[in-house]
Design brief:
Blueprint: E1 12-14, H1 20-29, E2 34-36, H2 51-64, H3 76-85, E3 90-92, E4 98-100, H4 103-108, H5 115-125, H6 142-150
Parallel strand pairs: 1-2
Antiparallel strand pairs: 3-4
Length: 151
């Protein structure tokens, strides 16, 4: 299984602002449709300052609730991901809206942009996870059972 052109259940998302614009353009030019996701854009849900905050908070909850298990903590890529996921400060506006520290504020503290963490969060929060059978060519009903578990 993998990405199949035209499969509406599968989508590639990317942030077309800043340095992400070049990446999104290159993906489009290669023929892969990409859905723009503006991290700094106004949130689609009340209670969050922007889309980035809206996706970071649920992913943090999924990790806390052990619904997302990170790879081996000794791997360099996992260390980098964990460092970025924990480097960002959260805020609460007096109106009750949740905020996250901006990348400019992080830069002023000497912290680099959390690009790996952003990609991780977009992967788990923007589109519902789909279940796929590990036996894709089996007709025994495994695939349907996997889909029923996810809903």
């Amino acid at each position: 299984m993998g990405y199949e052109r035209g499969d509406k259940r599968t989508a590639v998302h990317g942030d077309p602002t800043g340095i992400g614009k070049t990446m999104c353009d290159l993906i489009r030019e290669s023929g892969i449709p990409i859905v723009d996701f503006n991290f700094g854009g106004h949130s689609t849900l009340d209670g969050y300052k922007d889309e980035e905050t809206r996706i970071w908070y649920p992913v943090a909850k999924l990790i806390r609730d052990s619904k997302i298990t990170l790879p081996d903590r000794h791997l360099e890529t996992t260390k980098k991901l964990c460092a970025q996921l924990t480097s960002r400060r959260q805020k609460l506006h007096s109106s009750g809206v949740l905020w996250m520290e901006s990348k400019e504020e992080m830069r002023a503290r000497g912290v680099k942009s959390p690009d790996v963490a952003d990609a991780f969060c977009i992967a788990f929060a923007v589109q519902s996870v789909l279940a796929h059978s590990y036996r894709p060519f089996d007709d025994s009903g495994w695939r349907e059972s996997a889909r029923m578990l996810v809903g």
